[in-house]
Request: fold
Amino acid sequence: MKTWKIILITLGVAAVAVYLVFAFSAEKDNTVSNAPSINIKDADELQFVSEAKIKQILKKKGINPEKPVTEEKFAEVERIIEGNNAIKNCEVSKTVSGKVNIDIWQRKPVFRVMTADKSYFLDEEKVEIPCDFEYFVPIVTGTDNKDFIKGELFDFILFLQKDDFWQSQITQINVDKNKEITLVMRIGRHTVLLGTLDGYERKMNNLFTFYKKVLNEKGWNKYGKIDLQFDKQIVCTK
Reply:
């Protein structure tokens, strides 16, 4: 009889021990899973922000990213993260199981502006983005006139970006004091004098035709300058 009592007591103690172990593990796992998951959806293409940087942004505003975020805080978290110019959109949501996801999309640069004292990207919504990492887009130099950069010049560069050939061929756009444009090309040793932005679609179409009919035959390094400023002719110099 005593043997059975000892066995029952031993089994009881073992059961309690197992329960406590599982209860502790479950509590620990629950604590970890309740911390929000930060998902940068376009991290393969853009690296303006990282998970560590997002956590830093939240901590500065008094939100601990290692602890659970209540639904009442979702809108505030979105507002804080979207306050960073590199972030285009942030969505905070909770799954059926209670997991909180912070999904983030970054702004994609269209071109880069470089002046004597600063450098920044502009995205499709004309928002300025700090140059925190290298991203290969056309570089605008020679002007800090933001009205011109975000107006006529922006429209011209969007036109170029919609064409796969110009998007890959043009590396730099220099603007002089008269708002006349010089294009630096990736292929060939020539620069292109576009002049003002008046009639830029016609000028670029003429240049493309010149590339196909002339440079393809004579070679891409034949000329040093190609001038598109005249209505009915293209002037080339070595």
The first helix runs from residue 2 to 34. Helices lie at 2-34, 51-60, 74-82, 146-149, 152-161, 164-169, 200-218. The two ends are 111 Å apart (CA to CA). The longest strand covers residues 87-94.
